[in-house]
Amino acid sequence: MSAVLAVINHAQWVNLGNLLARKAGALVTLVVIGLVVQFVLHRLIDKLVSQAEDGVLPSRITHAAFGKGSTEPAPGSTRRVQRAKTLGTLLKSITSGVIVGVVLTMMLSEVGLNIGPIIASAGIVGVALGFGSQTLVKDFLSGIFMIFEDQYGVGDVVDMGEGLSGTVEAVSLRVTRLRDTNGTVWYVRNGELYRVGNMSQNWARTVLDVQVSAREDIARVRRVLADVIHDLWQDEDFDGVVIEEPEIWGIEAITPDAITLRVTLKTAPMEQWRVARVLRERIKARFDHEGIQAPYPTSYVMNRTPGSEAPAQ
């Protein structure tokens, strides 16, 4: 009996060998096509990764030098490169797995095996996933594009609308974890984000409105402000923090009591609030030294004698 089984097994192996010999050309062709498709897709992914590394902002900004003597690239570029490469590796793994599955299925069909049940099972799984996890797929795809476009990252201060703003603590392909100023942690699905304002990407701007009395000489006030902001620009402690020469944009508003002048400074990310506080202190001290007065309301007093009547209208 064992001899008969051995003969049958030998015959089966012989038949399988003959079948593979006849189909060798087709099988090799399928493998070559799979390798070519994989190469093309990987090259496309590399191109997308390269674009993601450059970021969405102009190159003159993303590669700008921060500060008077700094030669370092703009903050955030290293993080962007690392995240883009990580996503590129993930996409390459996914495409390779899909290509291998398709090629193996076609090779099984070529050698005469029935792949109908395999395709049917894959179709059923696909339909089940399509109906049962639409939200998950939407979150996943939104997370991929969000990370590729470097819309925000860990440590960024963002405004997600509807009164939700804070510091990003974690980013995944499905959810973003955000902590607001009160310490509350929010978990936001990436598929629910329609717009995001990033207040700490690449660079920031301090906009400071300075009010003085309407009776002050505006030309003198501008000279004093120019001296204050120039001293801040030349301060070595703020080299790399204030990244461009500060500017006085001019008069922003005029009222009977006050004149408002707008001062702007381009700063490194997350530094705009600290720079604004320091600048307010320096402006206040310099204005006190120069005798420049802050605005105060003007009031009029009407002195009437007892028993007098108001003038007729």
Outline the low-pLDDT stretches. Answer: 57-65, 69-75
Helicity, as a percent range: 40-55%
What separation lies between the terminal Cα atoms? 130 Å
Largest sheet: 5 strands, antiparallel
Strand order of the largest sheet: 4-3-2-1-5
Number of helices: 7
How many structural domains are formed by the residues? 3
Mean pLDDT: 78
- Envelope shape: elongated
Kindly report the oligomeric state of this protein.
single chain
Beta-strand level of the residues, as a percent range? Answer: 15-25%
Overview of this structure, please?
With 313 residues, the chain is α+β, with helices and mostly antiparallel strands. The protein folds into three domains: 2-132, Helix Hairpins (Orthogonal Bundle); 149-198, SH3 type barrels, CATH 2.30.30.60; 204-290, Alpha-Beta Plaits. It is built from seven helices and eight strands; from the N terminus they run H-H-H-H-H-E-E-E-E-E-E-H-E-E-H. The protein has helices at 2-54, 59-62, 77-110, 116-132, 134-148, 218-234, 272-290, and strands at 157-159, 165-171, 175-179, 185-189, 197-198, 204-213, 247-254, 258-267. A five-stranded antiparallel beta sheet has the order 4-3-2-1-5, with no helix packed on it. Strands 6-8-7 form a three-stranded antiparallel beta sheet. The protein is elongated. The N and C termini lie far apart (130 Å).
